[in-house]
Every structure is written in structure tokens, then in C-alpha cells.
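re: ur msg from earlier - yeah i can do the adenosine-5'-triphosphate complex, just paste it... oh wait u already did. ok heres what im feeding in:
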Amino acid sequence: MKASQLFYPTLREVPSEAEIVSHQLLLRAGFIRKTTAGVYTYLPLAQRVLKKITDIVREEMNRAGGQEIMMPIIQPRELWEKSGRWSLYGEEMFKLNDRHQREFALGPTHEELITTLVDSDVHSYKGLPLLLYQIQNKYRDEIRPRFGLMRGREFIMKDLYSFDIDYEGLDESYQKMHHAYQRIYERLELDYRVVQADSGAIGGNESHEFMVLAETGESEIVYCSLCDYAANVEKAVCLAEENPPARKEYKSLTKVHTPGQKTIKDIVGFLDIPEQQQIKTLMYMKDDELIAAIVRGDRDLNEIKLKNLIGGNQLFMADEATVKSICGAGFGSLGPVGMKVKIYIDLEVAQMRNFACGANEDDYHYTNVNIGRDFAPFAVVDIRNAVEGDRCPCCEGSLKTIRGIEVGHIFKLGTRYSEALEATFLDSHGQEKPLVMGCYGIGISRTMAAAVEQNSDENGILWPLPIAPFQVIIVPVNIKNQEQKDLAESIYNELTAKGIEVLLDDRDERAGVKFKDADLIGIPLRITIGPKSLQENKIEMKKRWEKENTLVDISAVTKTVLDIVLE
Ligand code: ATP
Ligand code: MG
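and the outut:
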């Protein structure tokens, strides 16, 4: 490809709306353009990268026994009613009507559609297991589309669904996918980690996320310093302290006037009680029921753990008016003593003695509160976020934290969808059984952004070779010099004939401009042709990730490039 023909409108300025590096660079280097919030056009360079990512994903899905199909984006409401997700999916679903006012969704995911499909065409265990996948746009009206391709409202996903006769079969399909995903991220040359994950609203029991490590990632991961335990903070198990502090004498419960003191920090200052000696009382609505959830003053409540533990359809923070009418005080003066709702306390809180909390009377707190004597929890549960330094749930090690970008997610669904949609098959005894399912997603467009997030410097992108839009860029210092131009073209032809993807920067620009653009768009290998090349029969070769050039004999260029690319 000749640069003079390529549509890659680069920008000099960093676009102001872009907060993270991948978003900035993909815009600046002319890979993507925004149409509306969370909706992007992929320009030629991006399209080339996406193709490489999808080729790798497709090869590994096929290797693992997957078969590619393509399902419709438009899905009828009835299917979603059957699974119970038309309302459950909520505001994130894009909905539309046809001319007869029939309702449809733009597919945010395809469990309903594929389960129905397989049910109508697979009747016996003989047709199983079956692994079907597609690579397609998904539509989700995200509450906060942001970071460019990271959290789009239209984005590209590979989604595979497995259908098995039983749970052993599912385990096998799940293992195959787990393995295929590892191969994919290794081939993409991204630094990643597999973590235990929460299976969320999709339902099911086991799930792992594939995280590309990056400071700006939206997910917080904990991992053990000794063993291979790693989990999304949403999911990470917190243990009770092994050696809780010795049982101190119960001191007498005291009510203290605390005018205007509402937060944990206020009380630290006002009563000189450290955060660890206070508790945080958070009020939630579990559907129509008000409940209290309590963690230590310096901890964060984990809503996902809480929801998984207590069940119910919806869990959301209660509003202050409701809380005040039932508990007698507004936010900032709440506590478990005398509170007439179900109280869930964190494991760690169960080991505290003589702590402080609100008194359910505005501007009053209690000190020296003790569980058992002063209030009775409904349940003692693990509901806090794990933090750096926590004990590993699997070994003696302690946990560390890092951030990552979730690029893949695999779930064991079991019979969650097949039962709701009555998708069954006849087993070898002629008995009707529900299909046992798994689902496996990869964010293709998010993976492209994650690759940039992880691989850039102050000059631009550093594409890993397997997904670079071009492997080599040839820069003749002066394109008006006929000999330079001829040499550039002959090397271009030779490399292209060997299957190397080459961009020839044939634009009539200063060499400095061309070097800057080559760095910005992140082509891994740069070949520079200048006057020296003609005098000494050598070209300068520079790897994007190294500082120095090397001189290569013109006769050895093709071999040198092939060695690097095939390595
Ligand atoms: P998240 O927690 O980031 O919202 P999710 O759990 O909703 O992700 P899945 O439904 O498991 O995501 O989708 C599979 C994959 O699709 C994700 O691992 C991610 O890589 C990608 N993905 C999900 N939502 C988006 C989005 N809004 N924009 C781009 N990619 C996305
Ligand atoms: Mg989501």
C-alpha cells in the first residue's frame, strides 16, 4: 500500500474528549472517528488490525471445535420475555418497533436466540456437543459510554455458545474455551491474566475473565503473591481474620452528641476514633424490603457479593426519606442498635469490639457498641471488597492488586436458559433433558483498544507484530530523488512478493514528518532509504520498540525482515 493512497487522517492535537491513551492515539493516528457517543467508524488502519484480531480468534475457535454462524442483530421481544430478561436487562437494551408496533431489541447478547435455534434443530444427544459462534456487532446502551472503543454502545464481539448433554460435557467445553482464550491472548502478544469472576446478571455458576493488564483498566484485580489465585475484586473472597484481636472487655454503651458530624472521617476528627474502630451502615432496597449492610469504617462494601448472597431481583441504595421514615434518622447517623430491619454484617465486623456508629437519631452516635449485647445481626457474611495485603483464600500468601481491562469472559450457564426457553434433547435412554450450556465472549474492538493501552510511548502506538496494520514501513527520505524512489519501490515489491505487509511512504513530505507519522501509527519495522543507501548499498532499519537504527545490506533486507516477522 502506498501512503499517498491510504486514508489515515492523522491529527496534530490530542482530541480533548479523549481521557486515556488508547482513545487519544486511535483518534490521532487516524484509526477511528466518532459518530455519536459510544459509536465509532473504523478507518482502514483499524479495519486491518481488527481483521488480524478476528483471524486469530477465528482460527482458535475453529481449532477448539467451534463452527461459525451469523445470527440476526434484530431480536423479537417474545424471545426475551420467555427468558425473563426483557425487563431484567433494563435500560442497557436498545429497543425498537416495526411498522406494526411489534417490539424488538438490538442484540446486546445472543443466549435467547441461539438457545431457541439449537432447540428447534437438535433433538438428540447424537447432535451434541455443539459449539457455535459468531463475530458481530453488539448493542448496549451503556450508562456511561467512554474511553473510545473500551466501552462503546456499538462494539464488536465474538460470542460462542456451547451445548452439552451434561455438566461433565460442559466442564470439557469450558476447558477447551479457557485454553483457546489463553492461546489467543498469547498470539496477540498481550500481557494478560485470567481471573475468577462474578457471573453477574447473565446467570450461571463458574466464570473467568481475561484481563489485559493496564493502569487505566476499569477492573481491579487481586492476585496472590505465592500461588496462582487471581480474582476480580468484585468476586475475590475475603476471609475472617485468623487471629482476631483478644476479646476486650465490653465497655458500656455510650450515646454522644455529634452535631453536624456525618461521615466516618468526621467522627475520626470529632471523637478521635480511628476508621477501623467505626462501622459503616449502608441501606439498600432488596426489591421492596429495606435492609442494612455493615462493613468496617475503612472498607468498601461489595454490592455484587451482597446481591449474590441475599438474592432478590433488584438491589439498589435506599433513598434518605425511606430510611428516615423507617429508622428514625437520615444518612450519617445510622447504626444497627435498635434498627428494625434485617442487618447483614461483614465477617470482619463480627470480630470488632467497642466500636462507634450512628445512633439512629440525627446528630447522635454511640460508642462502645458490641454485637450480641447491643444488636443481633441477621447474618454474618463476606460483603467487603478485597484490598492489598488481605490473606489469600487459597494459601499463606497475601494479596496484591493490579488493574486490568476485561477483554474476554467465559461462563458456565448450566440450564439457566435452556430451562426458561424449554430447550431440551433426548438422552441415550430416550429421556428429555435440558441442554447444558456455556457462553464465551471476546470484545474484539475492546481488545484493539487494550493493545494500544498496553503498548505505546510518547510518540505513538507500538503495535505487537501479529496485529500491526502493516508490518513494515519504507520511508524514502526524499521521494523526488528518482534513485531513492526506485530503490524504495524495488524493496517494496520484493517484500510484498514474500507476503510481507508493507506501507511505502511515497508522500512528498519532509523526512521528519514521515518518521513522526510512522511512529504515531505504530508500524513495527521502519526502513529508511537516503543518500547513504545509494552510496553504500545499505538501508537503515529501526524497530519501533528500540531506540537505535541498524544498517542492513540491501541484499539482506528481505531475509532480515522475514526473520523478524516470522520469529
Ligand atoms: P463489562 O463488565 O465491561 O460491562 P460485561 O460483563 O458486560 O463487560 P460480557 O457481556 O461478558 O461483558 O461481554 C463479553 C465481552 O465483550 C467483554 O469481556 C468485553 O470484552 C466486551 N464488552 C462488553 N461490553 C462492552 C462495551 N460496552 N464496549 C466494548 N466491549 C464490550
Ligand atoms: Mg457490561
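cool cool. The domain at 470-566 is CATH 3.40.50.800 (Rossmann fold). ping me if u need the other ligands too
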